[in-house]
């Protein structure tokens, strides 16, 4: 089995060392490098091409949110999933991270098991959006005026009715198994629908699908 190649980004050496110790105990995870700031993170991600980047937010120079934007913008389809790690449970960090293209968001006060699971989840192409995070996304978009109906229709015109149903369920934070149960489909079929939804809308992962659905009024809080 090829190990999951991870890049660690944090301005504190002790934190990076601690994460390395936690992750390298696992046979299927390999830490291939570490960076102390955002600029280093962009350079190492471009050169080493890790499978997952663990990104701190507050760092000197280029912070983690700016680095995530650079990585996603410069590498595009080849950009690895970025997991934002922070001690600050702040909504502004959360939504900036999602809009920057991060695939997950985890607080540093979690357990080692949480970190290991998060790396594996992102490495297999899924996004890490816990139910409480989904609720906060909903709350944030609750009072916003969405795009015009014409703009929404243009972005969504390529979706089939079934794919639209899948997008609505994704926006509620449903897993593939939950979507399969709701729509009476097999999980393999659901995976295909999810992949097509993301491709047609130009989205990288399920996290962006949630943000897109609320920004474009596909679903509304309480709906």
From TrEMBL:
Keywords noted in UniProt: DNA-binding, Phosphoprotein, Transcription, Transcription regulation
UniProt keyword annotation of Transcription regulation present: yes
Domain of life: Bacteria
Domain Response regulatory: 5-123
Record-annotated HTH luxR-type domain positions: 152-217
PANTHER family for the chain: TRANSCRIPTIONAL REGULATORY PROTEIN NARL-RELATED (PTHR43214:SF24), TWO-COMPONENT RESPONSE REGULATOR (PTHR43214)
Name of this chain's protein: Response regulator
Source organism per UniProt: Micromonospora zhanjiangensis
Source taxonomy: Bacteria, Bacillati, Actinomycetota, Actinomycetes, Micromonosporales
């Amino acid at each position: 089995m090829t190990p999951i190649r991870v890049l660690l980004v944090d301005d504190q050496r002790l934190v990076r060392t601690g994460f390395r110790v936690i992750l390298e105990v696992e046979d299927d995870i390999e830490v291939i490098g570490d960076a102390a700031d955002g600029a280093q993170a962009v350079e190492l991600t471009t050169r080493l091409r890790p499978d997952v980047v663990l990104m701190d937010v507050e760092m000197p120079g280029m912070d983690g949110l700016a680095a995530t934007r650079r990585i996603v913008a410069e590498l595009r389809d080849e950009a690895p999933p970025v997991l934002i790690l922070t001690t600050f449970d702040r909504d502004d960090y959360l939504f900036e991270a999602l809009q920057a293209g991060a695939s997950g968001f985890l607080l540093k006060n979690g357990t080692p098991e949480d970190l290991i699971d998060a790396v594996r989840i992102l490495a297999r192409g899924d996004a890490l959006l816990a139910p409480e995070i989904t609720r906060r996304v909903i709350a944030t978009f609750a009072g916003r005026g969405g795009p015009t109906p014409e703009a929404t229709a243009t972005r969504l015109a390529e979706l089939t009715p079934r794919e639209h149903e899948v997008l609505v369920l994704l926006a509620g934070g449903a897993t593939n198994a939950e979507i399969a149960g709701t729509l009476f489909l097999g999980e393999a079929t659901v995976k295909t629908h999810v992949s097509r939804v993301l491709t047609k809308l130009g989205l990288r992962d399920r996290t962006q699908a949630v943000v897109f659905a609320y920004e474009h009024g596909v679903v509304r809080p309480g709906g």
